[in-house]
Write a structure and sequence with these properties.
The chain is of the alpha+beta class. It contains twelve helices and 18 strands. Helices cover about 30% and strands about 30% of the residues.
Length: about 350
């Protein structure tokens, strides 16, 4: 089977690496022939707006998936006229618009912070009166790694934030005074079978994920699992899906949905019996899903801007390196390390060792 992947970034690269042991063939569609997924799979080089190229490529694929929710819906509509697309257009559309996303979550009874659409300064001022301050103003579409948002800490901040984010197609949300950020990744198959990975605790800096740790026996896992199962079923989702959450005084508040394999699930590559990448491939090809049992206390550390010395990294016990073959620049994810350890202390010691190498 030829699996088509829209997008040639590191997620496409890791999907390809997970697919090959299953005997699958991969074709990447990307405007950049030297994309990092292209180092491990053939690239069909063409622009996403090139309908003829998309159609020719799609016809050669048994199933097509995507590695980013920034793919235009029109691209999926073109592709699905010629082959199966998984996940489908519903999951993509909901995740691309923060207002639609929050409305869907609310309709499913999944808690979010209060929110309101903003298309004028008057809308924003009225919403702030209802929601309160501090609040977070965001673009409805686009933005990642902390981009496309401003925190409003006083009424005087409102107009500047509104102007900075384009003055329309915005959403304002109540500020979550969280004790920790967590996420959960689930995978749903064509037949509706579902598997769920353990709740993961995440640390961000400058809006970019730095470290994720799997949580063993966390008391909030069951609640998070209930939420993601409800969401995947409602969307008719096929493949991996991540739900990002805030822990606010023991109450889980949904933040964002990602209809794909997710950075906070990278620890599963070595740390779970079946990685999120392999299970995504299994799901979209109609295979039986693999168990998600963990192999210990696990973590993932992102490499932002540059990679550490490989020999020193590999000398750390329980550490596995993943370099993406990308040119380093500030704020860019160029690789990560995973950690698998027999205890939480050993895991955290390894994470500290990785961070020392990154700081050197």
């Amino acid at each position: 089977m030829t699996i088509g992947i829209l997008g040639g970034g590191q997620l496409g690269r890791m999907l390809a690496l997970a697919a090959y042991p299953l005997g699958e063939f991969i074709s990447i569609f990307d405007p950049d022939g030297d994309c990092c997924a292209g180092h491990v799979a053939p690239v069909f080089k063409a622009g996403f707006g090139d309908t003829s190229a998309l159609e020719a490529w799609a016809k050669a694929c048994k199933v097509v998936t995507f590695e980013s929710e920034n793919i235009a819906g029109e691209v999926l509509q073109t592709v699905q006229r010629h082959t199966t697309v998984a996940p489908g257009l519903v999951s993509l559309t909901i995740s691309q618009d923060r207002l639609l996303e929050k409305q869907r979550l609310r309709d499913l009874g999944i808690d979010t912070m209060p929110f309101a659409a903003v298309d004028s300064l008057a809308d924003l001022q009225q919403a702030l009166g209802n929601i309160g301050i501090p609040a977070v103003l965001k673009t409805r579409r686009g933005g990642y790694d902390g981009k496309g948002q401003r925190i409003i800490r006083s009424p005087d901040d409102a107009e500047a934030a509104f102007n900075a984010l384009g003055r329309r197609n915005l959403i304002v949300e109540g500020f979550a005074a969280f004790s920790r950020e967590v996420s959960i990744v689930g995978v749903r198959g064509v037949d509706g079978d579902e598997v769920i990975y353990p709740l993961t605790e995440n640390e961000h800096r400058d809006g970019i994920l730095r470290t994720s740790r799997n949580l063993v026996g966390d008391p909030l896992h069951a609640e998070a699992e209930h939420k993601i199962r409800r969401l995947m079923t409602d969307l008719g989702h096929v493949g991996a899906l991540a739900l990002e959450l805030f822990d606010v005084q023991g109450r889980l508040i949904a933040n964002e949905i990602a209809p794909r394999v997710h950075n906070t699930g990278h620890w599963t590559i070595e740390g779970a019996e079946t990685s999120q990448f392999e299970n995504h491939v299994r799901a979209i090809t109609g295979r039986h899903l693999g168990v998600t049992e963990t192999r210990g206390y696990c973590a993932m550390v992102n490499f932002i801007g540059s990679t550490p010395d490989l020999d020193k990294l590999l000398a750390l016990p329980g550490v596995h390196a993943h370099f993406y073959g990308k040119t380093g620049r500030p704020g860019r994810k160029v690789g990560h390390a995973t950690v698998v350890a027999a205890s939480a202390q050993a895991r955290d010691d390894a994470v500290a060792g990785i961070n020392r190498l990154l700081a050197a």
